[in-house]
Amino acid sequence: MGNAVTPVILGLLSIGPRSGYEIKATVDRSTVFFWAASYGQIYPELRRLEDDGLIEGEDASNGARARRVYRLTAAGHRELEAWLHGGDFKMELRDESLLRLFFADALPRDEALRLVEARRRMFEHVLGQLRAIDERPGEDPPFVDLVLRWGLAYTEWETQWCAEQLERLTEGATSA
Asked: Mean of the per-residue pLDDT values for the chain?
């Protein structure tokens, strides 16, 4: 299916019509925690999907500001369903903080430990964001909520893991 942002666009448009700006705004408060998309990915893909007949755009300019709102076509819905039912999927994890930890032996130990502490603080921050999302009024669709539950559990685990590793690595340094 297209590229990495295609399912995000088709999925969001299956919920309702949106502009490219609204797609990006929705990504930034939802899928960004596990599947990011930039304007540089979204707008070219919107054009391609429209050319392929998977979405339709309509001019919805507001004054001097150009705005195009897209909706999913029947062909686009079939493409989304095919992707949802697909047996193949990629597990892709790009975690720069974890990559830094992998190579942290190149640093003095106290500096390497600060990388673990920074990772812990980052996950505490994300956990706060996810809890705020969870506490907002209203209900999410069941499977959106399911992914939020995963995010909360994973982020809680990651925060605890960092604390445990800091303790383990600090004890290892004092007993050596």
From this structure: 93
